Amino acid sequence: MWCYRGGSISAEPRINDRIRVPEVRLVGPSGEQVGIVPLAKALELAQEYDLDLVEVAANARPPVCKLMDYGKFKYESAMKAREARKNQAHTVIKEMKLRPKIDPHDYDTKKGHVVRFLKQGDKVKITIMFRGREQSRPELGYRLLQRLATDVEDLGFIESNPKQDGRNMIMVLGPHKKKTEAMAEAREAQAARKAEAKANPGRSQNAAEEGVAESAPAEAESAETPAEASAEA
């Protein structure tokens, strides 16, 4: 009686001597169809080409095997998977907190953060915090949210309309650009900066130093929370 005793099941394909079938449907190193051949013949051809015999379709009858450099194949597959993870877009919701009677200068600063988040392809949760008697004037918060949505309408849209949540009023803005598009544009801009730096090393060095000085406050702000950036008015 067969009994499964546990242990991991390997996801690796069978190669060379680990293939245990009488015959295989063989695919050549360039993708050409060789046909159904005995396993011994397939292994002999693999030795002649100095390649591996790799089982690529174990459930076929007979199984399909291909002649290839398995080490090179694994390396290229790992690089492709790494690149796919690098380009994978993760939905991030940033948060910006404001007071209903916010100072004009502070409003411009907070709006600048919202603009930056939307350009990056992130959603932004806007929270209006009411305190004391302000709770009896929810229209102040509603008008402020509508004003902000209008100011950034070129970059985002109202994904969730303003709603009261205890002492707060919340609205969610969604970006017009997808995260993948924003990431692609950022990579293109970075490549352009590198090309310019290579062409004009002196001028680009000065620009880089100025950029570091200007971006320092923004980096400090975004480092507070990795998944959610918040600021209070």
UniProtKB/TrEMBL annotation:
Record Pfam families: IF3_C (PF00707), IF3_N (PF05198)
Coiled-coil regions listed: none
Alphabetical GO biological process terms: ribosome disassembly
SUPFAM superfamilies, per the entry: Translation initiation factor IF3, C-terminal domain (SSF55200), Translation initiation factor IF3, N-terminal domain (SSF54364)
Ranges for region Disordered: 178-233
Bias-annotated ranges (Basic and acidic residues): 180-197
Signal peptide: none
InterPro entries: T_IF-3_C_sf, T_IF-3_N_sf, Translation_initiation_fac_3, Translation_initiation_fac_3_C, Translation_initiation_fac_3_N
Domain Translation initiation factor 3 C-terminal: start-end pairs: 92-175
Subcellular localization(s) per the UniProt record: Cytoplasm
Family, per entry: Belongs to the IF-3 family.
Role noted for this protein: IF-3 binds to the 30S ribosomal subunit and shifts the equilibrium between 70S ribosomes and their 50S and 30S subunits in favor of the free subunits, thus enhancing the availability of 30S subunits on which protein synthesis initiation begins.
Subunit structure as annotated in this protein's UniProt entry: Monomer.
Name of this chain's protein: Translation initiation factor IF-3
Lineage start: Bacteria, Bacillati, Actinomycetota, Actinomycetes, Kitasatosporales
